Amino acid sequence: MAFSDQVGRFREDNRSPLYLQLQQLIRDAIGSDVLTPGNAIPPERDLAVEYEVARITVRKAIVGLVEEGLLTRRRGAGTFVTGRVEKSFSKLSSFTEDMAARGRKASSSWISRAPGQVNPEEAMMLGLSPGAPVLRFARIRYADDEAMALEFSTIAGYCLSSVEMVQDSLYAALEKAGNRPVRALQRLRAVPFGSEHAKMLGVDPGHPGLLIERRAFLRDGRPAEVTRSYYRGDAYDFVAELSDI
């Protein structure tokens, strides 16, 4: 089926610029679930031929929808309808648990994982003495094989005996060791991705991201985890429930 058969064609009585008309056709198709998360958008040259417009017109339409967060570009793969994830900012949960709750499969690729000695910043955050052992984990997190986030974690050495204990889920390993955090302090801020992080996530440098800094504690009050997670801004919504009680 042709793309225009799915989303519609330009109306002769519409005098708006063609790139805006194409944007609206795709926007409406996403809003009505004609196009669903993960659906591929045809290449610019194909859309230009199909809609009988210049390629620059198509590009302008697609760029606008990417900036709105409705579409996402994956380097070397193409343009797709964004599958956004809602993450509760008031519940302490792992990436694996968040994805499972939404019917998506979480996976990781390791950037690095290694034991080491605490550095000054980690020592302050984890309340450790100089030279204390820690375990460091860095990985790319995926949902249904789509890169979603970068995660850099430092775990106090008394929580896990080795880096090999962590396979898919860090929190599953901590729970198995009897050291799963029960509360955390989190800070959220917007950041643009630098070239290195953008390459890992398959987005363009400067792409909007969300940085979550987490400091988590055991039941006895000892700090257990310091994690910095960089989430794609076009794929995540963070939700918090507020009350005046």
Characterise the protein shown here.
InterPro entries: Bact_HTH_transcr_reg (IPR050679), Chorismate_lyase_/UTRA_dom_sf (IPR028978), Tscrpt_reg_HTH_GntR (IPR000524), UTRA (IPR011663), WH-like_DNA-bd_sf (IPR036388), WH_DNA-bd_sf (IPR036390). Pfam families: GntR, UTRA. This is GntR family transcriptional regulator. Keywords: DNA-binding, Transcription, Transcription regulation. One of its GO terms (molecular function) is DNA binding. The protein has 245 residues and is an alpha+beta fold. The mean pLDDT is 88. The protein has a 6-stranded antiparallel beta sheet with strand order 5-6-7-10-9-8. A 3-stranded antiparallel beta sheet has the order 1-3-2. It has helices at 3-7, 18-31, 44-51, 55-68, 95-101, 120-126, 170-176, 195-201, and strands spanning 40-41, 71-74, 78-81, 85-88, 106-117, 133-143, 146-156, 183-192, 208-217, 223-232, 236-239. Helix 2 packs across helix 4 and helix 3 packs across helix 4. The chain contains 8 helices and 11 strands. 27% of the residues are buried. Strand 9 and strand 10 form a beta hairpin. The chain folds into 2 domains: 3-81, Winged helix-like DNA-binding domain superfamily/Winged helix DNA-binding domain (Arc Repressor Mutant, subunit A, Orthogonal Bundle); 85-239, Chorismate lyase (3-Layer(aba) Sandwich).
Which oligomeric form is depicted?
A: single chain
Strand content: 25-35%
The total of helices stands at 8
CATH topology of the largest domain: the name is Chorismate lyase
Helix content: 25-40%
Return the CATH class of the largest domain. Alpha Beta
Mean pLDDT: 88
Give me the strand/helix succession: HHEHHEEEHEHEEHEHEEE
Kindly give the count of domains: 2
Domain HTH gntR-type: 16-84
Keywords: DNA-binding, Transcription, Transcription regulation
GO molecular function: DNA binding; DNA-binding transcription factor activity
InterPro entries: Bact_HTH_transcr_reg (IPR050679), Chorismate_lyase_/UTRA_dom_sf (IPR028978), Tscrpt_reg_HTH_GntR (IPR000524), UTRA (IPR011663), WH-like_DNA-bd_sf (IPR036388), WH_DNA-bd_sf (IPR036390)
